[in-house]
Predict the 3D structure of the following.
Amino acid sequence: MEQVTIIGAGLAGCEAAWQLAKRGISVRLLEMKPGRKTPAHQADTFGELVCSNSLRSNQLENAVGLLKEELRQVGSLILEAADGTRVAAGGALAVDRQAFSQWITDRIRQHPLISVFEEEVREIPAEGQVVVASGPLTSDALSRAIQEFLGQVDYLHFYDAAAPLVTFESIRMERAFFASRYDKGTADYINCPMTEEEYHAFWSALCTAREAPVHGFEDQSVFEGCMPVEVMGRRGPDTLRYGPLKPKGLRDPRTGETPYAVVQLRKDNATGSIYNLVGFQTHLAFPEQKRVFSMIPALQDAQFVRYGVMHRNTYLDSPRLLNRYYQTKACPRVMFAGQITGVEGYVESAASGALCGMELGRRLLGECPLDLPRETAMGALAAYISDGSVAQFQPMNINFGLIPPLGHRVRGKREKNTAIAKRALAALAERLQACGM
């Protein structure tokens, strides 16, 4: 049986390797860590996340919740690790990031059919089946090799950001309170209320704070799903109050009233010793982050264990280059998976890796394609990145707009989304059964 080469041990690469190895196919997994890391990476382990809540909602009426359930149904390693390292976060699937990454690393390294090589890849292998899952922070050398292989003059790209982390013990809890919005789930978030005067002082400082130098950065280049908080703030004095600082659904138990604005903090590890500033992705200079974010009353004495960082994300013009199986149209033996294909988000990245691994495995075993229908979340993502009718391709999170409508009226958004999710899971189950999976 032919060995498959996978480049990159992020979520997509590890998931693709896992799906292939489960089918008895030997995998050579190439990863440049720990010898070389990107600006967003700190650990030596595989499948590293920048935020404990990077996997987002776990509820079926949310499209990413549906995508997670589909991944569970196909035996995803990433969802196994996420479910096994989960920490409380209301309706979200948050994980202990270190435990999550270690879980994936251990499973990959211990599998007898997966061989890991720690080396930077500088060219696309000239022979054999290849899955490029190098991620949105692909090294310069590999980027040049990919451009040469694809014949593209330039990649498309956008900028992504990670939020700061603070220690729990440094939070002034007399100025904060535990609660979840609308009392949904358990009170897993620390809420830091601000008065109108406090908020406007903070907003003014934020909008005029000094940014870290990031070559080529422009506000219009920012991906909306990860917009830096200072960019959002510059759009108007109330933009943040309708975004990450919205007070709706929260009541300060000290006053019995809804605050003017609220900064939410979310647990970043299982022990609750570190918290993430929700929605505070930023590329402000580190001293400015300390100065401005300490203006939040509950964070006046905050100890920052990581400041926010800004980095470039690179992705392909996939509809012109890839088919629904994530194969390159010009050279089908080479596939791409993960955020480099334009599926935005960690769960979406894992899903593309899963589909790559399953479809490639079936081809190598002489089996019929899985051909997941567009009614499923995984099928919808594959259709989106390969839809040549898209005028200007942009990275996309999974959303119900990518999935065909029901064809009949269902009252209520939540009820309609739940019905779409149930249809998707039924379609997935039918297809898996038809393919003997």
Summary: The mean pLDDT is 90. The first strand starts at residue 4 and ends at 7.
